[in-house]
Specification:
4 helices; 155 residues; Nucleoside Triphosphate Pyrophosphohydrolase
Length: 155
């Protein structure tokens, strides 16, 4: 029996507070597709737990181990799954529900890639322009407002 992906996921935009550059990852299954960290929620897993797990799996960043502040944007969207990725979901599934998070870092890091071909640190504008995902582009474009919020509330 084929196990399909859960159509509920997280998007985690990782950025450097000092340089205001965004970590972008190149997909293995579609090298023209650059994105932030994403991943489907597992059974009985919260969005926050999914974000922590996916960041570790995709970049090697241990949010809890390094005492980093993961910011829950409290923003959830629904979007149509790209046709080239629908085979991973049950045949009737065409919509995914996505929870947004931000992970501000003090310095740019070299990620440990396991699920991607390559990475680059890009300006907010260039990161938003390189992704073909409209929701990823929108989330990246909101970093400036998220950063102000996070700095006020994490002190």
């Amino acid at each position: 029996m084929q196990k399909y992906k859960n159509p509920e996921s997280v998007l985690v935009v990782i950025y450097c507070k000092r340089t205001l550059r965004v970590l972008m990852l190149q997909r293995k299954d579609d090298p023209n597709f650059w994105q932030s960290v994403t991943g489907s929620m597992e059974d009985n897993e919260s969005p926050t737990d999914t974000a922590i797990r996916e960041v570790f799996e995709e970049t090697g960043i241990d949010i809890n181990g390094k005492n980093l502040k993961l910011i829950d944007a409290k923003h959830v969207i629904e979007f149509e799954i790209f046709p080239q990725f629908r085979y991973r979901y049950a045949p009737e599934v065409k919509i995914n529900k996505e929870h947004w998070f931000y992970l501000p870092l003090n310095d740019e890091i070299i990620p440990v890639l396991s699920e991607h071909l390559s990475y680059q640190w890009l300006t907010i504008k260039n990161a938003a322009n390189i992704t073909i995902s409209p929701n990823n582009c929108e989330a990246i474009s909101k970093i400036d407002s998220i950063d102000e919020f996070s700095l006020r509330n994490l002190k």
